[in-house]
Amino acid sequence: MASPAAASPVTKAQLEIYLHDAWAGKDVHVLLSKIGPYKIFYWDIKKTGPHQQLESEVINAFLRLLVIENNKVNMSKAVMIDSYEMTAIWMGRTSKVKMNPMDFQTVLGIVNVHYHWMLMVISPHEKKCVFLDPMGETSGNIKRCSDVTRAFMRKKGCNVSRWPCSALPHERQRDGSSCGILTLKFAECILKGVPINILTTEEAVNQMRWDVAIKLLEESDNLSNLCHYCGLDENEDPNWICCDNCGRWYHHECVQRPPLHKNYLCPACK
Q: Per-residue pLDDT tens for 58-105?
C-alpha cells in the first residue's frame, strides 16, 4: 500500500482494447478518462457503441473538447453550456449559468428531451440562434428555441428585441439511437464553420461513434494521481492500492479494502 506512482503513457493500442472491451459489454466502475469535470467510466464508453444512446457525461465531455479546440485556433471564442443547464433553459426554468454571453461569439449546448438530444446555438453578437434536431426540426421547436434563448439573453442583461431562430440543412437520423452522436457532429461542423455534410447510414454512424470514443480516451486529463474508482486524488483514506495487472491505482477504501497480502486485481481485470 502506497501513494500512486507515475504511470506510463497509455498507448493507442491499449485505448483501442479498452474501447473494444467496453463495446463488448464491460461496464465496470473503472475510470478511463476525465475531461475537465466530466468523468468517463467503462459504462460511458459502452454507451458510445452501436445502437446505444449516449449519456450526458459523454455528450458534455466531447462538447468541451470541441470548444477547447475551437478556442485554440479561432479568434471567435466559443463557450459551452452543459446539457443539464441547457435542458433547464429549454424547459423555461431558471438557469444557474454564470457568464456574460457577449464575451463570446458562439454559445452552444445540447438539450435532452424525452431521451432525445438536440442542439441549440446562440450567436450573441449577431442576435440570432440556430436549432438542430437530428430527427428534423419542427416549426414549434424552432419557435421554442427562439423564445427560450431570447429569454436567457434578456436575463443576462442583453438587448435582443429581434431574435430569429433558424435551422441548417442536414441528413435526418435513420434509427432510434444516433441522436447524441449526430448532435455532437452537428456542433463540430458549426464550430468549424463547415456545412453539415454528415451521412447517417449505420456504417457512417458507427464510425462516428468510434471516433468520438477514441478521442475521449486520447484527450483525457492526466489520471496518474487519481483514484480510478472515484476519480479524485484525495479522500479520507490516505492509503492507495495498485492493480497488479493493469497498474491502475485506487483508494484502498474505494475498492472495499482488499487483503494486502494477496495480489490485487481491480474490477476491470477480474
A: 999 999 999 999 999 988 899 999 999 999 999 998 888 999 999 999
CA distances from 16 to 29, 73, 87 (A): 18, 28, 32
- Label residue 115 exposed, middle or buried (CB < 10 Å: 0-12, 13-18, 19+): exposed
Residue 10: strand, helix, or coil: coil
Q: Could you tell me the pTM of the whole model?
A: 0.94
Pairing of strands 106-113, 78-81: parallel
On whether the CB atoms of residues 29 and 266 are closer than 8 A, the answer is no
Task: Please calculate the CA angle 18-215-54 and round it to the nearest 5 degrees.
Answer: 80
> SS3 string of 199-218?
CCCHHHHHHHHHHHHHHHHH
Q: In whole angstroms, how far apart are CA 236 and each of 154, 232, 254, 258? A: 44, 11, 10, 17
> With 90 as the cut, is the pLDDT of residue 48 above it?
yes
Residue with cell 492493480: 243
Is residue 262 very low, low, confident or very high in pLDDT (cuts 50, 70, 90)?
A: confident
Q: Classify each residue of 28-45 as buried b or exposed e, where b means 16 or more C-beta atoms within 10 Å of its C-beta.
A: bebbbbbbeebbbbbbbb
Helix axes 83-90, 56-73, angle to 10 degrees: 100
Tens digits of residue pLDDT in 158-213: 988 889 999 999 999 999 999 999 999 999 999 999 999 999 999 999 999 999 99
